From TrEMBL:
Localisation per UniProt entry: Cell membrane
UniProt xrefs under InterPro entries: Glcn_transporter (IPR003474)
Main location: membrane
Topology within the bilayer: Multi-pass membrane protein
UniProt xrefs under Pfam families: GntP_permease (PF02447)
GO terms for cellular component: plasma membrane
Name by which UniProt lists this protein: Gluconate transporter
Top-rank taxon, per record: Bacteria
Amino acid sequence: MLVILICIVLLILLVSWAKVNPFLAFLMVSITAGLLLGIPLTKITASVQKGLGDTLGPLAIIICLGAMLGKLVATSGAAQKIAEVLVNLFGVKYIQLALVAVGFIIGIPLFYNTGFVLMVPLIFSVVYKYKLPAVYIGLPMLSALSVTHGFLPPHPSPTTLVGMFHANMGTTLLYGLALAIPAIILAGPVFAQTLKKMPSAPLDTFRSEDMPADKLPGAATSFLTALLPVILLMASTFYLNSNKTPGRVHDIITFLGDAPIVMLISLLVATFTLGLRQKKTMAALGGIYTDAVKDISMILLIIAGAGAFKQVLVDSGVNNEITSLLQSSHMQPLLLGWLLAAIIRISLGSATVAGLTAAGIVSTMVVKDPSINPNLMVLSIGAGSLACSHVNDGGFWLFKEYFNLSIKNTFLSWTIMETLVALIGLGGVLILNMFV
């Protein structure tokens, strides 16, 4: 525990005080952690490389294609058109709530990082056009994405936990929705009221000059193209959940519903609808895509660095020591599940790893003890897995870099929002446990 604390403090000091590049800081701290935690010298580098590869493997395609799609949505005027339609429907006064609703709807089928890179252009288009505070407008939408990622099936962690605890998917989803709404409202729009004056200069990659109305793509084209990944993922998820019969069609839908394939299809469609059909040449589109990848290259490396640090901690076995200490205590099982997930999340950074690790520890207890509601345990661990996101979490760096915030202000906005979601989720679970 002391080594983990030293390494986290060292990481914070390197990035915030010494101004070391975050990717280099992660490499230095990961190697230092490996040495202090007793990983053999011959295996430290392998652990770092595994963490880099395992983290970037599932995310690189999604983030890169998402950035390309986002850049095209911004430069084509589609984001401007979407923002105008939303403001006309809800008014500038309620645009924040409109974005929260969109974030919640698309967050149910979308993996968090995919939803993040898809919605950032929409957030920034509203911010630029109507000169609104970026963090105040953006954080509530991202709180909706975060809650759906931690609480609700079909996301990987809650879906896996449902199976481990023999819970009911529909009941868990129903309870999760009941918890998600107050968590999003309180940690999103209500908390964001305190962030109106937080300075933020978001990445220029999604900034586009206002275009004349007659040059903008149509509203239907703009919405359908920007939301095509959501539509494809929702459609494939619905089909696969309602029809589990194996066969050729099932395999094809599974393939087409995979996030990287969905993003590739969406970008190809956008290349036509927002590119070629808008009289852009392939050379011009290639330049847009190249610029988009350049803009997010450092973000990819930072996320990979966080993965390396996480893997060193996992390989050292320190997470097992933490959980052994907690298991020997005698506390309310739902609170224990939340606390286990929260501590592993704080130590390792990954919400999914925290949720699955905590579930593995308490799964036998949940199955054998009929007094423990398995649906609520899924939600309790899901809430705990979101607690206190900080410098070892890729989501922390996505938010910091996209919104161009200081480390301090990222803690004061992102970290507090995630912690509020976790605490509100725990409170909701304990209240529900009194009645169900």
